[in-house]
Structure formats: C-alpha cells, structure tokens
Amino acid sequence: MSELLLRGGTVHALDDDRTTAEAVLFREGRVAAVGDAGTVEAESTDAEVIDLDGRTVLPGFNDAHTHVFSVGIGLLETDLSAADDREEALALLADNAASTPAGEWVLGFSYDESSWPAGERDYLTKAELDSVSEDHPVVAVRVDGHSATLNSRGLDAVDFSGVEHDVREEHGEPTGRVVEDATGRVRAASYPDVPKASEALDAAIDRYHELGVTSIQTVAGLTRVRDHGYVQQEALFAHWRDDDLDLRTTFYVPQWQAESLSDLEFASGFGDDWLRLGGLKTFSDGSIGSETAKTHREFAGGGFGEMVNDREQLREWFAHAARTNQQIATHAIGGEAIDIVIDEYERALSEYDDEFDPRLRVEHAELATDEAIERMADAGIVASMQPNFLQWNGEDGLYENRLGADVRPENNRYRDVLDAGVPLAFGSDKMPPGPLYGMQFAVESPHESQRVGVDEALAAYTRGAAYAEFQEDEKGTLEPGRFGDAVVLDADPYENADAFDEIGVELTIVDGEIAYDAR
Ligand SMILES: [Zn+2]
Fold first, then answer.
1. Cβ of 2: how many Cβ atoms within 10 Å?
2. Neighbours of ion ligand 1 (CB under 5 A)
3. Structural contact between residues 296 and 334, judged by C-beta atoms closer than 8 angstroms
4. Beta bridge partners of 149
5. What is the whole-number distance in angstroms between the Cα of residue 66 and the centre of ligand 1?
6. Cβ–Cβ < 8 Å for 113, 89
7. 367, 407 contact by CB (below 8 A)
8. What is the mean pLDDT of each run of 10 residues along the chain (519 residues)?
9. How far away, in angstroms, is 228 Cα from ligand 1 center?
10. 1 alpha carbon to ligand 1 midpoint, in Å?
11. CB 62 within 8 A of CB 466
C-alpha cells in the first residue's frame, strides 16, 4: 500500500471550517487523514515519512485558465518576457536565429512592450524583425497572444486569405503587425509537429509542478484546431494513454467544434481523474493590450475594440452547448463584451435541463461593470479571473496607457466580485503561470478597494478553481477522500501577505506521490 505522511508543519486543509493541522497522510492517491501528528501516524501502516520542519501544506494549486501548449512551447522557444527592453528582445531572437537552420521559423513568445522603458513602448515592427534575420521567417507574439509582429519573410510564409482585416497596414503596406484571427494563422503556419508538441507538454508539466500546480484547466485558443492537424490533442491523449499525464487536466473545446461536440452528446465532466472534458470555449472580444477588447471606454489609439464573434454567433454556439448540458467558458474582457455574453448566457440558461446548473463562466471579466457583476451573481455565473493581470495596473502601466488613469481602480474587481457572491476562480492565462506570483497582486492590489484577503486568494486558486470545473468534491481541499494533491511551501502565506512572491515551493505532491522536490 503506498502511503506518504507529512508531519511537523502546518497543514491548511482549506475545508469549510478552515481546519489547520500538524500532519496529513496520503494513501493510494487520496487524502487518508488530517490531524495532529499522533492521530495521523496511528492511521498509517507503512508510510514514507517526510518531516515538514515547520513548513506549510496546502491543497495543490489549480490553474483555472491556461493554455498548456503555449506554456510548453514558450519554454522550448524564445521567451521574450525575459527582455527588459527592445534591444534585448531583438538580441534574444537573433540568438535563436543563429541556432536555427535557414528557412525554419524563429519563434518568440510573450513580448510585453508595456513593460519596457518609456519611449520604447510601441509594438515591435517588421523592420526590427527584418534586422533579426532575412533568412528565417521570424515572429514575436505578444504576451496576450492576441497580436504578433512578423518580419517580411514571415509575412510571406503565412496564408492570410479570409483574415486580411486582421493584418495591419499603413499606406497600403503591411506593417508586420497582425491581430486576432491573423495571429491564429501565424500559429497554424509555425506550429510544431507531434513530437515537438509532446516535448512541449512535458516541459509544461514540469514547470507546473515547480509552481505547486497539480491541476490545470486548459482552454482552446483562437487557432482553428484543424489548421494545425490536431497535434495538441494527439500529444495530450498520448500522455494520458501512457499514464504520463501527472497533471490533472480539464480541457475546453474550441468554439468551432460547438456543433460536433454537442452531436456527441457528451456532457461536461466526461473523462477520468486525469483528463476530463470541461465544455465549450468561446471568444467574444480581443484584449486590452492589443486594443481589441470591446469596451465602453475609448482606447488611446482610438476605437472601442471589436467583437471577434458577434451576438448571433455566440447565441448559436451557446444553444449547441445547452442542448447536451455542456458548460461554456467565454472569453470576455471589455465591459460591452461582458454585457453581451451575460445577455446570451441568461438566454441560454433556460435551455439547459432544469436540474443542471452549468456554472457558465466568464473568462477574464476585466472590465465588468457594477451591473454586470450583479447579474453574474444572480445567474450563478463563475468569474474566471487572473490576478497576475494586475502586473499591468501600476502607474503608467498598460491599463492606464490604453484606457486612461481612471480605469485603474475599475479593472479586475476581485473584491466586488466576491462581495456580490459571484463564484471566483483564479488562473494565470500563462502570463506567466505561477499561483504565488499571481496571488500577491490580488492581496496587495495597488487599489485597496479591490484587495482580497490571503484566504480568499488561496481559496480562488484551489476550491474556487475546483468549483469552476465541477470538481469541488474531489479537489481543492485536503479532506479525507479527496485527491492526494498538495503543495509544501517554505513559508506560510497566511503570515506573509506582503511577501507572497518570495514564498518557495518545496514539494509538489500529485496523487499521493512526490512530483517535484526542491529540497
Ligand atoms: Zn486565455
């Protein structure tokens, strides 16, 4: 019988009573006992024992919104989030080009011009990427994944027919910048094959374990799956078949599959303890960073953003999902997009079985109005939000620069969401992944009115995330019978509200076994 006993620290079970204990025992992949050391030891028969030496145990973190392949590919390719300025970003790409055979793609991810010094905060340009290489197609994808810049060779290598409206031009010439659907085409054209996707998945799983994450909810991006040959699914299912998926994964299917998913008559939750179907992922608008979120406020660069799918299209997809009791997770960032999604969710709710609460999800909800938050509470709509987004909410930060200073206290309203009674789930949207990194912003938000407590933040990244995927009876707490998924931290978050990001992950335990060990 496989047993693992952790004792001599502080175990926060995060159950309804917020039990704290000295020890926890895992047996056969589940939590077997939580309590004082004597009682828990008496329960064990032949356990591997780990002395916690005062460390802190929490339920494993659950990233409620991520793109697992982007995480992995980002690790394998050039990570531009590491660049402190334009020059460094271009140098990183040039390094990549130097070791890439001519003609093959040079891929850079997660560039964030808003974090660069004043005067350097324009998007990367075609000319700059031409200076990186003229022998390779080069692309730098923005951190939000909603836009990218290509060099001339890259523009030539992608088929943009049908999505020309998302290829930016000046004086009739492409600027090298593409947004939304055209960014999807770039991904499709530059996408890796199955072995590379499999390597990316392994890299992402390792990274998640390092971060104390034991479950993820991976949502479809904008790229049409069929455009890149199902490599992601193939890698995911191969890992699952080979028992290599030691990160519990719930996946949300892309909007284009709404009808076929419904025709299969699979309801949300189909799958097993490792790989489950969450439901349908749809998009309503773009992003703030790319000035494509559909807002009530005007962007600095002009305009109010765009719906990437209009109301009628969303309605049709939602009806397909409702027909077979599938949950829907809809990307909605701008205030107007959120309002439209809630309208259509309210309509769709009447089409689900009366006994089934589909826990419809709004992903991001960054610019939700008071009224929208109230409506979400009334309809039981889940807010799936990303506390790490507040990294852009500082003075002279992206939110302010794109939408004006008065947007700063009015975005990512975690406090108002919780106070209204809206179920809150935290995730990272892989910008970057990292629950401790993200939670520090929710706890120390520059806008005190939107701060949440340590317990509320931890709950949103564990219990709340589990609720968002109908898994609250299996995970999110350390109660007997729940999955043996936990994280051991070198300091107690409850006592380090002002230094969350300095807390280290010592151990990650998945299914009652050690998946990551930093000791
Ligand atoms: Zn996302």
1. 14
2. 429
3. yes
4. 140, 177
5. 6
6. no
7. yes
8. 94 98 98 96 95 98 94 90 94 95 92 92 95 96 91 96 94 93 87 82 97 95 57 89 96 91 89 96 92 93 93 97 96 97 97 94 97 98 97 91 92 96 97 96 87 97 98 98 98 95 96 97
9. 18
10. 40
11. yes
Contacts of 500 (CB under 8 A, 6+ apart): 436, 437, 439, 440, 443, 444, 493
Q: Which amino acid is at 452?
A: V
Compute, in angstroms, the gap from residue 219 CA to the centroid of ligand 1. 7
pLDDT at 57: 98
**Ligand 1 centroid – CA 142 distance (Å):** 13
DSSP secondary structure code for residue 232 in this structure: H
Nearest 5°: CA angle at 159, between 153 and 160? 105
Residue 140 CB-half CA count within 13 A? 32
**pLDDT score recorded for residue 226:** 52
Strand partners, 21: 11
Closest CA to 205 of 196, 215, 195, 194: 215
Q: What is the pLDDT of residue 73?
A: 85
Tokens of 192: 């890796």
Element (H, E) at 132: helix 126-132
Nearby residues of 159 by Cβ (< 8 Å), 6 or more positions away: 185, 189
Say how many Å lie between the first and final Cα of the chain, rounded.
25
* Greatest Cα-to-Cα distance within the chain, rounded to the nearest angstrom: 77
For residue 222, what pLDDT is reported? Answer: 64
CB 236 within 8 A of CB 245: yes
Distances in whole angstroms, Cα of residue 425 to Cα of each of 347, 350, 429, 472:
23, 24, 12, 12
| Rg over CA atoms, the chain | 23
Cα 350–Cα 351–Cα 352 angle in degrees, nearest 5? 95
Q: In angstroms, what is the span from residue 61 Cα to ligand 1's centroid?
A: 18
- Alpha-carbon distance of 401 to 390, in angstroms, equals 14
